[in-house]
Specification:
By secondary structure, the chain is an alpha+beta fold. The protein contains four helices and seven strands; from the N terminus they run ββααβααββββ. It has helices spanning 16-24, 32-46, 57-60, 67-76, and strands at residues 7-8, 11-15, 51-56, 79-83, 91-99, 102-111, 118-125.
Length: 126
């Protein structure tokens, strides 16, 4: 993944174009309608932003999870805005947590009943 190297409070800054291009490189590309749904939801939340904060445990290390993600998981609670697990074998889940002027997205892609989906987190400042 190409990304700017500056990290702010555990968040790597990446362009919104990178978010979408990385999405197109995932296994979602094999299910065009599912890809379009997930892409549209992400674009709606990102709006006109040029960059967003990005955290992915597989890349940044699970011990480095930003405090805001922990707060959304434990205190403020993520709300599910999309969950395809009820109607297909390979599922995608998008959850959102709003705190002040910041929106956090938890995006879990390409999970299945035999393997859970990996989750990437995005931080969008309004």
């Amino acid at each position: 993944m190409q990304a700017q190297q500056n990290q702010s409070q555990g968040w790597q800054q990446i362009s919104t174009d990178t978010v979408i291009s990385d999405l197109s490189e995932s296994n979602l590309i094999y299910d065009w309608s599912e890809y379009q749904i997930v892409r549209t939801i992400l674009q709606e939340f990102m709006g006109a932003q040029s960059h967003v904060g990005y955290y992915f445990g597989e890349v940044h290390g699970y011990d480095n999870k930003p405090n805001e993600v922990r707060l959304c998981q434990e205190v403020y609670n993520f709300e599910t805005v999309y969950d395809s697990s009820m109607y297909q074998q390979t599922y995608n889940i998008i959850q959102v947590c709003q705190h002040g002027e910041v929106t956090y997205l938890a995006v879990s892609l390409c999970g299945s009943y035999g393997a859970s989906a990996l989750t990437a987190y995005y931080r969008i400042t309004i």
